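How a chain folds remains the central question behind the approach discussed here. The record that follows shows the chain in one-letter code together with its fold in token form:
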Amino acid sequence: MKKIVALLGILTLTVSCKTAGTVSSNDSLKNTFKNKFYIGTAMSLPQIYGTDVKSVEIIKKQFSSIVAENCMKSMFLQPEEGKFFFDDADKFVAFGEKNKMFIIGHTLIWHSQLPKWFFVDKEGKDVSAEVLKQRMKNHITTVVSRYKGRVKGYDVVNEAIMEDGSYRKSKFYEILGEEFIPLAFQYAQEADPNAELYYNDYNEWFPEKVKTVTKIVKNLKSRGIRIDGVGMQTHVGLDTPKLTEYEKAIVNYAAAGVKVNVTEMEISALPSPWGTSANVSDKVEYEAKMNPYTAGLPENVKTEWENRYLDFFRLFLKHQDKIRRVTLWGTTDAQSWKNDFPVKGRTDYPLLFDRNDQTKPVVGKIIQLTKEK
């Protein structure tokens, strides 16, 4: 009897450990979600070139989709007018093809990380609407045509709408008005009719922002211009946004006739001076109180952080019919931009793999969610 009791105890412990997040050698996020949605990550240059060996192995095992963290942004692809630099992007696309991944181009039109020449003439004055249209068309056509049939989807326009639903007063908007968005999608569609085309932004659960983005989707569709998805950047914290707000946005965008891409996801465990903004120009000076966990997360905070991830993935599974892709904004904590945003020099823990390239227990728990009835 004692042997039986002991055996039952071992079995119970084994099951409990499995439920708690132990990942077997055969388990992976890629295999777990393959019939639900793509699971992706953003790749840095050291990963693209294979010098960050351990994280590359994680990417190949765990993810079915990749997006370039920086090398496909316009300032890197076309630093001077008419002079394109494709070495890094070519390497990135080749990696994705070799590993049979769903490749995302990020991003074609964005007000930030844009070369200075894009909006000005030789005298430094704003170019005309016609000149800007031609520059947009040339950039989009050159990039999308180069990777036609290889890059499967593009963030065509990035971060054009403010939280109050108004248009960001970028140079694109100042020179072309609202029409710069349909033009960008039109040029991308013409360059590769089979590539998926997305609008991508942060805080897309704010009610007024939802209304404007939905209006853009419907406008494009009414004009016969393709838009396949809305990318919901998911730079979130432990408290914001509320899951109910996030869920309403998913349902709303799906009702407008597009898929939802969960993009740029990470969950910061650190305090933020302003919630979950991802505006790269928003930075604050370092303060020690904003960097409280340099030696690691306390157990209570770690538990809260894990539960937050699990809540989001439960939501993704609930709406898997509406979701095309879930992409993490990086692979390991060491890679994350959140170490330097919005406060430079902090120690954050926002991703699924730690600074030593080890799988965090939450990965096993996420996998286990798919086995729950």
